[in-house]
Amino acid sequence: MGRGGKFKKNRGGGRGGGRGAANGDRATHRPYQTFPEVAKENEKFERYYNGMLDLPEEEKAEFWPALRRELPNSFRFCGSKGHALAVRKLLQKRYIPEITRITHDGLLVEAPKEVPWYPDSLAWWMTTPKNVVRKFPPFSAFQKFLVSETSVGNISRQEVVSMIPPLLMDLKPGMTVLDLCAAPGSKSAQLLEIVHRGEEARIRQVVRGIAADANGAAKAEEEQEDEAARLEADPSDDGRATGILIANDADYKRSHMLIHQLKRLSSPNMIVTNHDATMYPPIRIPNPEDPTKPKYLKFDRILADVPCSGDGTLRKNVNLWKDWTPGNALGLHLTQVRILVRALQMLKPGGRVVYSTCSMNPMENESVVAAAIDRCGGPEKIEIIDCSGQLPMLKRKPGLKKWQIMDKSGRVWNTWQEVDEYMKSGGEDGGPAVAPSRLVETMFPIQEGSDCYDLPLDRCMRVYAHQQDTGGFFITALHKKAEFKAKPEDVKKEVAKKPETAANGAATSTNGTPEAVEANGAAAPKRGLEEQAEEPEVKKRRVSQDETASPTEDAAAASEPEFAPVPDTAEAEAETKAEGASVDTPMADADAADTPKIEAAATDSRPNQPEKKKKQQGPYEEPFKYLSPENPVIQNVTEFYKISDRFPKDRYMVRNAMGEPAKSIYYTSALVRDILTLNEGRGVKFVHGGVKMFVKQDSPSADVCRWRIQSEGMPILHGYVGEDRVVVLRKKETLKKLLIEMFPKIANGEWARLDEIGERVRDLGLGCCVLRVEPEGDDEFFNETMALPLWKSFHSLNLMLPKEDRSAMLLRIFNDTTPLVNMGIKKDEKKEEGPVAVADAEVKAAESKEEDTVMGEDNAEVKGPAPTEKAPVEGEAVAAETTAA
Ligand SMILES: C[S@@+](CC[C@H](N)C(=O)[O-])C[C@H]1O[C@@H](n2cnc3c(N)ncnc32)[C@H](O)[C@@H]1O
């Protein structure tokens, strides 16, 4: 997209859907418009959609200009609701008043607005283009805020339509949820937030109860409006969330993007896997009724946000104007059906699958839904949910009940019979007909006579660009009424051919259209439709990029090669051999529906499947080994931090084959533990699980616990830590000092500089403790309680936070960009360390988080002391974490 058009005047089109006028915008606002280098036209695309989308003429006149306009900037406040609301308040109170004063060429800039249908006003958008916000100096404070909060995971730059699917899942705390095609992870993040909804309040209630029991005081109940915040919403684990999210992606590299995005939410209830969703393996879980019989996880909710041609993202990916061909979607249909069928198989009866794409093409949307329902037993078993009552403010269109299919050559077909007859009748010049490449029957509307003929496909949701100035999107929610046995895939639709056509390869190759030659290879004999349908369904597949990716992710995704996962039959076979089919086949009644091994044979009709086990994609993953509560390290941390008995001791885990704590100790929920343990060696590719809770470092004396609490584990653990290891901070200025100063001195009376916490710190034993921030007063930007790890050495103190967190907190609470200062080095060496340039040990620790998962984290060397607090100066060891590299 061109930068040159920074502030050029809008040349027509207006803002689609009348959003501006409806919201009472001032007429003085300039609708920004940048000017593309790519011509925003494509004959086939325009012909196909003009002919098919059921839009009245006046809407068509809005639809096309909207697709050619630049997309508004949008973002979502994320994390726990309380925290997200606190960060939102900053936007409203600090930045919007500034933005509304910005003018350019005498015109006022349009301030961000809330997305009307997003709950709790946590999603926002603005029409000012990203490059203007980035470059125009009056936006610089707002831009810093966006960058800083995005870097610490409080803001997700997500396209608004991409926020819809998780909101239609009706997900509740305690549920099991699977996101089958999850990278880069913005929808998974939304799901994970719901898995944890209300948890903070529930735990607070339980922890207060524990304290009240200890003091003999009365238990105070918090009033809770949000049902999820009441203990009854998820009571079985003392208020801790018991639900689980499994986020999966078939692409190894992208599964690591996913980890990066989701790790920021510090959830012990999440696992990341790396599988082809069409063959997602059954996940074993405990079977309390009969522990000798295997039991497999069925999900309450599944999101299938499948790979698609992505033509709804034209406004962002302008190259699609030149790259769009009907072939983009043709190659995806079968994979999309397979993913949706697999999702429905793994769902509990009564559960819900949400299927979504950022494509407008019915062959990726309604036809996929209909084909999957047909394969899964029809409307008796699967119902399309009427979501018209949900998100009432969201403008949408009903799903199509009739559509056409455009083949690679641009020819449009109404029914499968038309294709069939064409093949029977021969080519237009009287010669043999050339089969339209890759067309399969399930792409077309289901014909009369089938149970699925009259499915209420109008219950599917289509969102178009002009309706509320967004990208295009398709969403459908499906309800599983009962178990079913899926029909095998039937892609071998025989098309009657003239005998000479089928046999006479040489003749057809000379008579083929250019498109047919391209499809089949110039020298190769032409093949019938049957064979073409059987060829690997997508050799080259566009992975639709999610509009939510961060700039780096955008870049990575944009440069990525086309992606074509191969159903991993061999893997399933290997697993069968390893475990014995009889053992591993889920419950008798769950039959083929639950077993990708069987399913693989049924669906994968492609020739030349490799016999040998496919080489595992991606590097070796370290195993997940749980520690016994009797492990001396677990006993040591429990004793040192006086961790309450109410905090479970049987969920600590390390990532090395020895199963011994070497560098880091992770914590997971009970269900995550059971899954990681029971599925070890079964070929399930787990690539991430657990929150880093303790990190080993050198300690100043033998009495001091060498395991400090890691910042991401702090929110989970702090409520259970004994008061001996807690320092309470109430004053804003004290926190500011601790954020700006790294390693402030406390020896020789210097503790007194630390104001209200000085004496407490002086008397505190060495090692790690919890800094509990309980703001006093009514400062609107300093009112959130938090818990941060603090390390006390002989001579100094240090907040153990990554640099981004320190800087983001300084900006958020104090609107301050003061560079950090390292107080731990000699006076004449002391220098200011810009918030972005600090290379201290805890920063490295934070950065090493990424490498840990990839490298096998416990193999990393542990060295001390940390490079920044120079040992000769301080004579004490601190923050000894080194990078895993
Ligand atoms: C539309 S993107 C998903 C966006 C994601 N849900 C989000 O909100 O951030 C589709 C994803 O599916 C993945 N994918 C493609 N084929 C797949 C398959 N057969 N199984 C699982 N994932 C697949 C791609 O790697 C890509 O990350």
Q: What can you see in these coordinates?
A:
This protein is 31% helix and 14% strand. The protein is an alpha+beta fold and 885 residues long. Strand 29 and strand 30 form a beta hairpin. The radius of gyration is 29 Å and the shape is globular. The chain binds S-adenosylmethionine. S-adenosylmethionine (SAM) binds next to helix 8.
CATH architecture of the largest domain: 3-Layer(aba) Sandwich
User: Looking at this structure, what is the CATH superfamily of the largest domain?
Assistant: Vaccinia Virus protein VP39
Which percent bin holds the helix content? 25-40%
Radius of gyration: 29 Å
Range of strand content: 5-15%
Domain unit count: 4
The residue ranges in which pLDDT falls below 50 over 5 or more consecutive positions are 1-31, 494-614, 830-885
Arithmetic mean of pLDDT: 78
Largest sheet: 10 strands, mixed
CATH topology of the largest domain: Rossmann fold
> Between the first and last Cα atoms, what is the distance in angstroms?
38 Å
Number of helices: 32
Write the layout of secondary structure elements.
Layout lengths: L18 H4 L20 H10 L4 H12 L4 E5 L3 H19 L3 E2 L2 E2 L4 E2 L8 E4 L3 H6 L4 H12 L3 E2 L7 H4 L8 E4 L6 H10 L3 H17 L28 E5 L3 H12 L6 E4 L10 E2 L9 E2 L2 E7 L14 H4 L3 H4 L2 H14 E11 L8 H10 L6 E3 L12 E2 L6 E2 L5 E2 L2 H10 L35 E3 L1 H4 L4 E8 L18 H5 L1 H7 L2 H7 L8 H6 L16 H8 L10 H11 L1 H4 L11 H8 L21 E2 L5 H9 L11 E3 L9 E4 L2 H9 L7 E4 L1 E6 L10 E3 L4 H4 L8 E4 L2 H9 E2 L15 H6 L3 E7 L12 E7 L4 E3 L3 H12 L5 E3 L9 E2 L7 H15 L15 H4 L11
Parallel strand pairs: 7-8, 7-12, 8-9, 12-13, 26-28, 27-31
Antiparallel strand pairs: 1-5, 1-6, 2-3, 4-5, 9-23, 10-11, 13-19, 14-19, 15-18, 16-17, 18-19, 20-21, 21-22, 22-24, 24-25, 28-29, 29-30, 31-32
Helix pairs in contact: 6-30, 13-14, 22-24, 28-30
This protein binds S-adenosylmethionine.
